[in-house]
Amino acid sequence: MKRFSNILIFSLFALAVHAQEKNDIMYITFSNGEVVSFLVDEIDSITFEAPAMDEVAPSFPADDGSKKLNVGNPAQSASNLLVAAGVACTDTMGRINITAEQYEEIKQFTSSLVGSSMRQIDIYNKCFNWVCSNVKYGTTYSDGSYVNNDPYPVFTKKIAVCQGYSNLLFVMLHSQGVPVLVTNGYLDGYGVYGGHAWNYANCDGTWYVSDPTNGGSFEMLRQSTYTHLKPLSFDVLLFKEQGCEFDFNEARLNICTVTTKSKYFVTPFSVGGYQVSSFNPTSELPSTVREIYIGKNIETLGENSRGLDKYAPNVEYAHIDPENATLRSNKGIVYSAYSDYPMYIPAAMKRIEMLPMETLGKNVIYNHNGVEEIVIPKGCKLIEPWAIENCPNLKKAYVPNDTDVKRNAFYNVHPDFEIVYTE
What we know:
Blueprint: E1 6-11, E2 17-22, E3 25-30, E4 35-39, E5 43-49, H1 74-85, H2 100-114, H3 120-134, E6 136-137, H4 151-157, E7 159-160, H5 162-175, E8 180-189, E9 192-203, E10 206-211, E11 216-219, E12 229-234, E13 239-241, E14 244-249, E15 252-258, E16 264-266, E17 270-271, E18 274-275, E19 278-279, E20 291-294, H6 307-311, E21 317-320, E22 327-330, E23 333-336, E24 342-344, E25 351-353, E26 359-360, E27 365-366, E28 373-375, E29 382-383, E30 388-391, E31 396-400, E32 404-405, E33 410-413, E34 418-422
Parallel strand pairs: 1-5, 6-7, 15-19, 16-20, 20-21, 25-28, 26-29, 27-30, 28-31, 29-32, 30-33, 31-34
Antiparallel strand pairs: 2-3, 3-4, 8-9, 8-12, 9-10, 10-11, 13-14, 14-15, 17-18, 22-23, 23-24
Helix pairs in contact: 2-5, 3-5, 4-5
């Protein structure tokens, strides 16, 4: 019999396949009942191609019994997290802006200042005292220009506000191998209430809270001695695991970076023994992430700004654990548990179906490049001017026929935009 150089290719859509030989005939039996046969002599090879299968949608993270941080006591939360993370988290320059040459100059000066001191606490005290004694508080230079709070200008001109004090102390201690970081938060003392910057330093295994602007230095675990300092954020990463990076932001343990390449991202329940309560990214999510699953432990997506609005351009749906007490979701949109006003609409969502709102005020939806259709539910009585604005791909809105749609309610949308009135 003539032999052919054919190659048979089968796409396997069944879960099970078996084959057998009989009288030089090959039979391929699929689990759906279909049978394919051919002469073995006519075939050089058989290639089976299985179609790519979608990832299975995940479940929400389970409660693992981890401790919950007290947002009302940020100093305690900061202390707990630094103890859990250890000094390894300080192996970074944070957000310090300095050249290599500038750093080296400050390092040489600091080495001369501390001399033969071997203990980290002695190095810390000499650097702290020098900054307190030599840097003056001020917002402008003698020529009227605003001070530069980067560490090198503070070192050379010796005038700064609190951020400059803490930046310079950071570089001096870092140059001598003392674990240190910069924190930002609030000062509620000395007759002042407002934004403030200071340091945390670890000397010979003991953490210190260091406020060079006001000459205050305290052992971190003795929190009653610095109740006037309320930390809100660190300039370091605390943990890197579970496909994420975590920081301390808005007085919460926060997911700041997502590194997993999966289509589905599930927020971790805890890290370092403490519950994660915030998901407010500061860098772009991988382009592969299309849906996010937010557990009951997440209490906020950001109080002052929401990183998901900026750093999740490919996310299409967000899902909130039904057991979450502060957030909820409906048709992929996130809401506060106490409001029907949308909190977060994924940037790549093409069809927005909103919860009923009697009035859609200005900028309920704005700067959304992905949406093509909006469904306004029954019960909406009024859509005010500029309620939906800067949605360049929005082509259609389904609106109840008894809704009063004001002029410019849909503003700067697709040129072919139309309103479809519904019963």
